[in-house]
Amino acid sequence: MGGISLDNTIKPFTDVRVRRALTLGLDRYTGGRVLLPLTGLRDVGGLMRPGTEWALPQAELDKLPGFGRDMEKNRAEARRLLAEAGYPRGFKLVLKNRNVKLPYQDFAVFAIQ
Q1: What angle do CA 22, 67, 44 make, to 5 degrees?
Q2: In sequence order, what are the residues at sequence separation of 6 or more whose Cβ sits closer than 8 angstroms to the Cβ of residue 18?
Q3: What is the distance between the alpha carbons of residues 104 and 107, in angstroms, rounded to a whole number?
Q4: Which residues constitute the domain of residue 76?
Q5: CB atoms within 10 A of CB 46
Q6: Each residue of 59-107: pLDDT tens digit?
Q7: Contact predicate 48/55, CB 8 Å
Q8: In-domain check, residue 7
Q9: 6 lies in a domain?
Q10: Is 38 exposed, middle or buried (0-12, 13-18, 19+ CB in 10 A)?
Q11: Half-sphere exposure of 69 (CA within 13 A, CB side)
Q12: Are 69 and 24 in contact (CB under 8 A)?
């Protein structure tokens, strides 16, 4: 699936709790399912391309923050982390993106939702 990069030198992204909350809030598996027909994005993986010999096995991937499949649990933890970091009602941010429909704009729309 697509990716998002954060500038961790500016607030609120300097706080690891905020960065972890954002990764917990993104439902990668639903994204893979709904974005496949639109963009071809499907596979959920870590740093290495899913399905390659160096990719993490699914059982290991599931242990990483944001890669577990229980989205209610993930989002509850994300809300807790944001509140702990001083953002109990969240915060606004600007997502900058490439002006290219596939797959960037469709992925961005999914991530924002």
Answers
A1: 110
A2: 12, 81, 82, 85, 87
A3: 5
A4: 16-112
A5: 13
A6: 998 999 999 999 999 999 999 999 999 999 999 999 999 988 889 899 9
A7: yes
A8: no
A9: no
A10: middle
A11: 9
A12: no
Q: Whole-angstrom Cα distance, residue 41 to residue 2?
A: 7
Q: What residue has token string 């010999």?
A: 53
pLDDT for residue 74: 96
Q: Are the beta carbons of 17 and 81 closer than 8 angstroms? A: yes
* Structure token digits, residue 4: 């998002």
In a domain, 5, yes or no: no
Count of CB atoms situated within 10 Å of the CB of 86: 12
Distance CA 100, CA 71 (A): 29
Is-contact 67 28, C-beta < 8 A?
yes
CA-to-CA distance for 18 and 65, rounded, in angstroms?
12
Contact assessment for residue 103 and residue 31, using Cβ atoms and an 8 Å cutoff: no
In the predicted model, is pLDDT for residue 111 greater than 70?
yes
How many domains does one find in the chain?
Answer: 1
| pTM to 2 decimal places | 0.84
Do the domain assignments include residue 65? yes
Residue 77: both structure tokens together: 């933890």
